[in-house]
Amino acid sequence: MDDLSDQFADETLAINQQRLETLKGFDVDALDAQAKLSHRLFKILTQRDIDGEKWRHYSYPINQMFGWQQQIPSFLINIHRVTQPSDIEAYISRLEGVTGLMDQILANVKKSEELGVVPPRFVYPLVIEASRNVITGAPFDESGENSALWDDFNEKLASLDLSEDEATALREQARDALLTSVQPAYERLITELERQEQIATTDDGVWKLPNGEAYYNDRLQNYTTTDLSAAEIHQIGLDNVARIHEEMLGIMKQVGFEGDLQDFFEFIRTDNRFTYPNTDEGRARYLNEAKALIDQMREKLPDYFGILPKADMVVKRVEPFREKAAGKAFYQQPALDGSRPGTYYANLYDMTDMPIYQMEALAYHEGIPGHHMQIAISQELEGVPMFQRMARFTAYTEGWGLYSEYLPKEMGFYEDPYSDFGRLAMELWRAARLVVDTGLHDKKWTREEAIDYLRTNTPNPEGDLSKAIERYIVMPGQATAYMIGKEKILSLREEAREALGDAFDIRGYHDEVLKDGPLPLDILEEKINGWVEARKTAG
Question: What PANTHER family does the entry give (predicted)?
């Protein structure tokens, strides 16, 4: 389990400060081009970690999107693999370690509260319910159902070739760990959350926090890797919303719909043809069709990319214990050693929140040529240090994901006009994020005002609206990175195409973007400009 203590954080800060001092001793001019880039990225990442220390207790440690109440079971179920007896013993050890980890989590929750950093009130019912879900079912109660952790442990135990006595002994150890470590730890968490819920307010933006404006500006700079102000990002969002609305009107005419754009949005939201049933059959159909879309895309990748990922990717449904609070879709990277594939998770809790017309764009974003392709390629890079292979710059990574929704249009996909509308709806969603994120955290919009903006300006189903705004509230600034990153990747591509003319190679451009792993947008621009000049020189 992670060490979440202030002592560990202080030690890490000291190490990072020493690393920056060490970097000063490098003869940068003696390094080759690849090492120079690695040196530069290491310095940026280390400085970012150091600068972020002033906000150590500002990120809500318990929230509905990535809080520890769901990270613990998610890690054990999805990441902790069992292939030999020592693995199952390590699983039990981690169950036993939940007690100490929860002590640190609760200490950090209280430190945040002392600083005046308390999540908005809407967070508490969601995280309390998710916490209760973890300790619901056997062996925690006699409801007749197994808890998610108990099911997972027994399934992994059964995969080992053990004698009945060995399996029984391990099962009893796990049961004991669940009852004496996991259950009381979660009960303490629930008690603390119920207490804190009573003092939480309905103010949603981080403007309410001490030094909230400075914190939000730091978040914007961190996520976008630019110096754009909140006001500039807000305007970029408004401009793109207007542009995409115009493109949607074209599709509305193409399908022969009579009425205005708001009428079309309501038709898209409510017509049953655009969703599968809220049944096991409907969910299975969605997963199967998402897999088929990704398989079709794989066939055309070599025409647009020279570098392809080696790691496999699978499509899975978000597990029941966390699906009510989780986002509609997300990606989990593959294991470095190839033992676990990348995973595109689709949240099928309510099928009306997963419209069919968005299925293509969502699969391309989370799968290929989106997150799986970019992250797997980064992890598989050779000749670069590990930190660079694992680096994350949100504007680059999420910008690539959004660019990967757009690119298939040029590749001949989105043949159904409603799927093309879905592509635009997904892009519109990211443009609207620029407006509502800055609205919430800079302009002091309420949660309800932000939801109303999405309801008026996007066709997304009602279930998307509140869940999305609640995400932006607890992850200030993160949502702005998508559109900012995509616009940069696309504009650099078009500038390169104009500069090179017939010599422009789309495969070469994509490989240049991907071949060094994630980058801040300014360094990406420098790299692409260098690639263009090199191709000009080569003639």
Answer: DUF885 DOMAIN-CONTAINING PROTEIN, GLR0591 PROTEIN
